[in-house]
Design a protein that fits this description.
Family: Belongs to the gluconeogenesis factor family.
Strand content: 5-15%
CATH topology of the largest domain: Rossmann fold
CATH architecture of the largest domain: 3-Layer(aba) Sandwich
CATH class of the largest domain: Alpha Beta
Distance between the termini: 51 Å
Structural class: alpha/beta
Helix content: 40-55%
Strand order of the largest sheet: 3-2-1-7-8-9-10
Number of domains: 2
Number of helices: 20
Order of helices and strands: HHHHHEHEHHHHHEEEHEHEHHEHEHHEHH
Function: Required for morphogenesis under gluconeogenic growth conditions.
Main location: cytoplasm
Number of strands: 10
Pfam families: CofD
Organism: Proteinivorax tanatarense
Largest sheet: 7 strands, parallel
Amino acid sequence: MGRFGKWFYPGLSIKRWVFVLALSILGLSFGVALIAVGVEQLQSKTRSILSHFFTLLGDYTLLLAGVVILCSLILLVISIVKINKNITKVISGDENKIVDTMYNKAQLSRGPNIVVFGGGTGLSVLLRGLKEYTTNITAVVTVADDGGSSGRIRGDMGVLPPGDIRNCLVALADKESYLETILQHRFSNDELKEHSLGNLILASLSQKIGFVNAIKEVGKVLAVRGRVYPATLEPKISLRAKFKDGSEVVGETKIAQENKVIKRISLIPDTAEPLPETLQAIKNADAIILGPGSLYTSIIPHFLVEGIPEAIKNAKAPVYYICNVMTQKGETLNYSAVDHVKALERHSLKNIADYIVLNNKNISTEQADIYKKKDNAGPVQVNEKKLNNGKIEVLQGDLLEDDKVQVRHSSNKLAKFVLSHLIKQDYRNKNFIDHYLLDKKLNEID
């Protein structure tokens, strides 16, 4: 049976409504013709072969035409609605669901172009929030991870570490479901211990079609709202840290383990190049967001890729740096917000960020004690005067998840805070409809 013939397969409940649709179109055509001929007969003494018909109808010709057209229009609307209902019922079982999905996708597709740089769990947290307001998201992820499953895959298979990429894809998934749960599943048996299924799939695909194409294919399966790119495709990329005491160490995992004061981070090799897609995304961005995430191993490595700092600095979009809420063992112990900004600029360019986003919600004594005892960590201290002297504008708000133990950013609070500022400051000059839709969306989601 041909593709066209399948539309008339028994059980689809399509045939009858296609027939009604055809009948209504014929009725409309007849009604219009009836009006045209009737008017001609009224205006001319010439008689056609339909003269006897119109003689019988007399003054009721136009009335009959109107009734035929009205009935045909009613049948046309009913048939279209019924055909649509039966098709959507087969596809999803709920026609309302498809309409809502189409509307939501159309609305999100007109959202702002956001480029986010980061890695680890911090980036995933932000992406989960952003995807509720726009699908025009470009997540650029560090690929220097050498620990856990990613490190083993990198060493055994010679591909870029897939762990942070996988987390971002799952975070951007249209709806996080069992499929995402499966991709995040970690094996417990000896040979595959600690490997996640998603990591293995990405690694296997990358060997066949390349790392970027592998990301795209998994993204299609998850129906991700945005794009995910590695910071660079350099396969042997590594991080090197030089500490304040003069010592050096190579490897992301070892850097944190040293627990020393970091003076400078560099890449090996130092000629890593970005993807052209990343540079284009920066150029077209409405906003550029740095973080949240580990300062030296998730955020700064992006600025060590050739051309990235200059592209961000030259971009017309505002740049937001989302500072961590707590200091981090092995990287930023005793760091204030000013120290974060200084480290960022020391590895990139002066005044690289326009805004620093900080949490001002109080952290409970119980939470602070947990971090103090475990890692000697504490809340990042804020000195607005010093920050303002550095020409970076301070933005503060309640950005925390309601968690009595762990101190972490809230996905929705963080995304909503940044986008609300963007729409008030820079996005207002964009297309009126796009501005209106984003403002509407911000007010819809709690």
